[in-house]
Each structure stands twice: as C-alpha cells, then as structure tokens.
Fold these 2 entries.
Entry 1:
Amino acid sequence: MIASLLAAVARAVAGGTVRWARAPVADRQRVFFANHTSHLDFILIWASLPARIRKRTRPVAARDYWESGPIRRYLARKVFRAVLIDRATPGEGADRSPEVRGRAAIARMVEGLDRENSLIVFPEGTRGSGDEMAEFKSGLYYLWRERPDVELVPVHLENLNRVLPKGELIPVPMISRVSFGPPLDCAEGETKEAFLEQARRAVQQLGEP
Amino acid sequence: MTSFDDRELLWLLAGLAALLLTATAVGQVLEQVVATPSGRETVDNVNARVRAWWVMSIAFAIAVASGGVGSVVLFALISFLALREFVTLSPTGRVDHAALVWSFFLVTPAQYVLVGFHWYGLFSIMIPVYAFLFVTARLVLAGETERFLERAATIQWGLMVCVYCISYAPALLLLHIHGYEGENAKLLFFLVVVVQLSDVLQYIWGKLFGRHPIAPAISPNKTWEGFVGGIACAVLLGASLWWITPFNPWQAALMALAIALMGFVGGLVMSAIKRDRGVKDYGSLIEGHGGVLDRVDSLLFAAPIFFHLTRFFF
C-alpha cells in the first residue's frame, strides 16, 4: 500500500515520460543499472516499472545512509526491500580492505537476486553532478560473472539532477525522463574493462537525443 | 455558491456541448472520407484534439459553474503545470534550485490565494514587484555570477507569463461591474471561449485557405489567410455572445478583437521560445495538443489585456 502510494507520488513529482526499448516481460530476473544524480533516482526507476515487476525489484543501496533513522530503516527494509551494502566510508568497516568489502557486496547482491528478484544498481557508486557520468565501479562486472543468466538492462535518467540535486531537500517538479534500453549483449570472455565500458556507453547512448 | 441557477450559463454550456458534438461528428465523417496518408495523419490529430477538448471543456465547465473556488483552483493548477513545462525547457542549473523551489511552492500558490480572496491591490503587484526582486536576491545569495542576468530573467519571465498572466483569467471574478454583480463567471467564459475558438478558427482557415505564411521562421503554420479569416470569425463570435457580457454588441466585438489579436501574439511568442529551444511542443500532457503551455499560449497575453480593458472601461 505504502509502496504504490510512494510510486504514485514519485511519478507525480518527477512526472516524467517512461520509454522502453523493449516491452518488459514479467518473469525474468534483471539488473537495472543507471546513471546516478539524485536521491530520487531509484524511487523513480522503481516507480516507472510495471507493478508486477516492481514488486520483485530491489534497490541496492548504502547501508550507512539507509540505516540512520527509523523512517529510512523502515522504508529500506519493509517498503523497498533494499539490498544494503557497506560503502567505503571512513570509520565503520574501514578496517576491512576494499577487496574484502567488494566481495561481501557482490555476495549480498547475489543473495538479493535469489531465484526471482531483480535489482536496481548505480555503478557510478555515488551521485554525480549530472553533466558527465563517472567511470563504472567493477561490481556490475562481478555480478554478471556470478549470474550470467540475469538480464542487464541499462536505464538513463534525465533531468532528475534538476528535480533534486545533490544537497537539496525540496524537489522542484520538473519533467524528467526514464529510458529503459535493450538488455546488454555481452560476449562470454569479455574483459572487465571492456564490459564496464560497454555498460557505461549503453547508458550514455540512451541519453542522446 | 453555484452558478447552475444562472439560465444564461446553462445555455452557454449547452452551446459548448453542441459545438463539441458537431466537432466529433465532423471528425468521424473525415475519418471515413480522407484516404491519403498525410490527410489521415491530420485527421487523426484533429480527432485526438477533439477528444482532449471534451476533457478540457468538462473541467472548465465544472470550474466555472462551481463559482469562484473552482476557477481559482483550475487556473492555479494550469499555472503550476505551465511553469513546470517552462522551467524544464529553460537552462537552469543547481544554483537556481532554491529560487525555483520558492517560485513553485510559494509564489504560485500565493498568487492564486490573492485571487481567491479578491485582494486586487497585492494580486496586481506581488509578482512584478516582490517576486521580481526576491528571485534576483535569492540568486545573488546563491553566489554564482555566470550568466546571472540570463538566469534571473528566465525565472522572472516564467513567473510573469505562466503565473501572473494566467492568473488574470480567474481574476475576472473579482471585478466589480455595475449591474453585472455575481455574473462574472460568464466573463471568464467569454474570454476563454473567444481565445480558444479564435485559435481553432485560425487553424481551420489556415488549413483550408492558407497560402502566405506570416512568420515562417517562427511558426510555418500561421498564415495571413488563417489570421484574417480566424480573427474575423472570432470577432463575430464575440459579438454574438454580447448578451452574456456587460458589453453591447459592438463593444463585445472590439473586446473579442483585442482578445484574438493578443491571443495571436501570445501564441507566436511562445512558439519563438520553442523554436529557440529546438522543440516542437512544451510537453505531452494533452493528447494531440502537446503540453499545457501549448494549449494556453494564446491566453497568456489575452487575459491581462482583457482584464484591464474591462476594468478600465466598465
């Protein structure tokens, strides 16, 4: 109930157009990966999905952000069923090496996918300014290696950095656009660099007019 | 308070329904008759527009018939959506965010609250004076000098056109006209029907007889034939509606002329902005018409001029 209400609010505020390169079939597992410029990003992707797919789609999000405060914790756990992972923030968990943390994050995501779920990930790792996409972190690659059967769907978000830029609290109701591209078509022995570049270009291309 | 006991208003709404029924019937006939691909495209677009006209007319009829509150709420919503389309197309950036938040969530509602409370003195200066200065002040506090004047002017212009100008339509309800008390809703009806039908008539005349474009660089579909034929018909329409206004027939004709001319200019100005931004429509909210701003563009200049002409002379 809260979930569909939130989805409706997100669609109203960022009231954008949603484009699909291919009409989505419900019974497939997917990883949606997108450019990241705003807190609203994952909510809007999630709200743009058809209800049947949305129910099984979980965002991958930073534990330190979503576990601070009871409302966020409730939303992350009960409403969005987020897959929470540890970020490379100084302090908590910093004693572990990046490799260990990375492997743990991949394990969490694979676990989150399970047999029927889909994920929303932002491979840039953090929110950008909206001008230029940052390089993709390698998590998406390892995730693909673990679960090559899962469809990788590029998503491009336009104008959301203007709706709610980094550091702002109140969104400006501008018209945004969510574009879902065709699933990535990756050769089996793809190198990490080539794979990540292909994924990044797929998102970028969706943003070109 | 409702206006449903107003016999004249009921006649007007019946007339509007008859007009829409005619348009729907003509659309059906055209669909049977027209065979060429380009002709079919036009017919499909016309029929989509007619369908959208039904929805818009029903919303407008409910708003007008409900008296003041309905009209204020409807036009507040139109302003909000129009400003949203305008800002989306404008090159605003992160530093403008706060000024935009204030524009959407304070200035826009406040303007319509002033209309609702019939506070003419503040209504007429809030945006040109206070919002004008406030936006500039807020932007300078954001501390970015790049394209400063351009960014400030864009937001101010958006507020002036999308909020201030549009709010003059429901503001017709706060005019005091001797011998016309409680009937102002029909003045709003007069404005909207004349301005919108003037658009439609110019479109029809242009499609049928249009040869010589008026401003090919801005809007290739606007022709001298459409302009003259459409506006002449709009003036006749306005004159024939004199009985719902405080005007006599020739006054109504002159008012309709002013409305239609201002409507034409407003449409042209909003087209020039679209051209500059490289888009065809402001949005896609209304099927066949484009965005809200594409539909109300002709109201923008007509509403304040009609308001002040009426206020001054009657």
Entry 2:
Amino acid sequence: MGRYLIPLVLFMVLVGFLLVGLNRDPHEVPSPLINKAAPAFTLPQLKDPTKTFSAQEMRGKVWILNVWASWCVTCRDEHPLLIEYAKTGAVPIYGLNYKDQRPDALAWLGELGDPYVLSAADVDGRVAIDYGVYGAPETYVIDQSGTIRFKQIGPVTPDVWSKQVLPLVQDLNRKGN
Amino acid sequence: MKKLLFVCLMILSFGVTVVAWDVRPASGDDPVVEKRLMDLSKELRCLVCQNETLADSQAGLAEDLRREIREQIKAGKSDQEIIAFLTQRYGQFILYRPRVTPTTYLLWFGPFVLLIGGLLVLFRYIRYHRDSVKEEPLSSEDRRRATELLASNSGKETA
C-alpha cells in the first residue's frame, strides 16, 4: 500500500497543476503597472487634432482609459458593451486610439457610436508602450491620484464590469470623497 | 526513402522561412547599433506571439519595440537601462531568462531538484536490489550437474 501512495500523491499534485494551468489564459500577463502612477502623456484629440488631451488633466477623478483601434477585431465585439457602460454614467471612459488611421477611426465611431468622452490619437503607439499595451483592447482604471488600479487585457465583459470594474470605481469614489 | 527526403525538405524549407523572417537591418543603419539591437532582442519575448523572440517576430508591437530599443541605443542607453525600461512596462515576462528571485526559484532550481531526487531514488533502488540478491558459491554437486548438462548439450549439437 505504502509503495503506491507516494506516486499517487505525486500524480495528484501534477493533475492539480495541470488543472490550474488549463483554466489560466497564457495571454494574460500580469501588469507591473498596477498600483503604479499612470504614465503621463499629452496627445492630440482624435476628433479635433488641434486640441490635446493629457492624463494629468484627469487628476482628482476616477476614470477609465480604453485602448482601441478600428483594425482591432475584438474591439468591435467590446464596443457595444462600452456604449452600454458609458450610458450608465458610472465612470467617464476615455479612449486611446492605438496605431490607427484617423479617417478609419472616425468612420468606426460614426458607424458604431462613440462611448468615449474623447479619444486621444496614439498614432505611433509610443504611449501604448508606456502603458505596457500588447493587445488591444486593454482597459485601465485610474484613480484620483493618477494611479493605475486595475487593468483588463481583452474585452471588458459584463461579468468583469459588474464584478470588478464597478465595485472598484465605487470604492475609489467613496474613498476620494 | 522518398518520404524521408520529403520530410528533410520540409524541415529545410521551414528553416529558410525562419531565417527570412529575421530582422533585416534597414540599409544605412549603423551596424553597431543593429548588432546590439539584435543581441538584445534575442533575449526578449514578443508579447503578442509569446513563443517568439522580439528579434524574430513580425508583429506590429515587436516592430515598435525594436524601434524603441534602436532609439534608446542611439541615445546612449545601456543594455541594463533598456531592459529596465521594458520590464517596468511589460514585467519580467518579456525576459526570456527571468531573473533569479524567490518567485522564480522553482523555475530555476526545480529541474535540478528533480534530477537529484531521481538519482537518489535510482541509487536506493539499485542498492536495495543488490542487497536482496544473496551470492551463494556453487556446491560440488551443482558443479557436477552443470558439467553433465553442458556435456550432453554439446553432444547434441555435434550430432
């Protein structure tokens, strides 16, 4: 009996590891930016390139930065959800238009609707590098002090929104006031 | 044989595509910068494809990151500074050789622990079996029977 126990235990440990591994998405790389200051940037606005938008302007507010592009397929899936979230008015959503052509981006917003307070145009993707973006869509929740509190890689599904984003935003707003 | 040749050709053509995907230094670029860029980006992971180095990847992000590294090299940054820049943004995952920290001890030393464990089990097993076999010298009776058997056997073979 004893001689079979050790291999059995080892096997169960292996199965445990494999089970955990199966349920994890290897594309979700933990961001080192969580609880760090959101990188500063100043970029031209997508709709009116003569105006700029900078992350520093948002001090004192809880806000969401959503990285999107018209060439990004998953962004198209996420877009109607963002419009729904924006309608609730729970938190302002700002867009970072990532490596896009301006006419394409404008056409996309015209066709699908615009959930963003405004979008900043990151044409060469440098700001995205500062934010550690590697696959749009990506979404950041940034607090009053300009600290990144949460990052979602891939679409913000209704589940993520109601279980993670909304409670966090409410919590941050309570603490801030 | 034909099959083997086909497989060889497949492997060869794969090798050629990999080489063709390598970073080609843009003409007019400083070869010293390009050499450092190549060496650095071979140590870095492309986050989009994950199992490719930054040197091999053709993903848009990989191109942007190579551009970023190239500019930082030209700006006189050291390799350590550039790697620090990237790990601040993308985490240790971007390093193909993660640093030795408590969270990576298992990764770095696990295989050696397993190897030593396996060797210990093997040695114990061998010793156990060696001790359990008792060597007894042949008695004169056994020896007589053995020669008898051998003699009768060789007799049959010659017949």
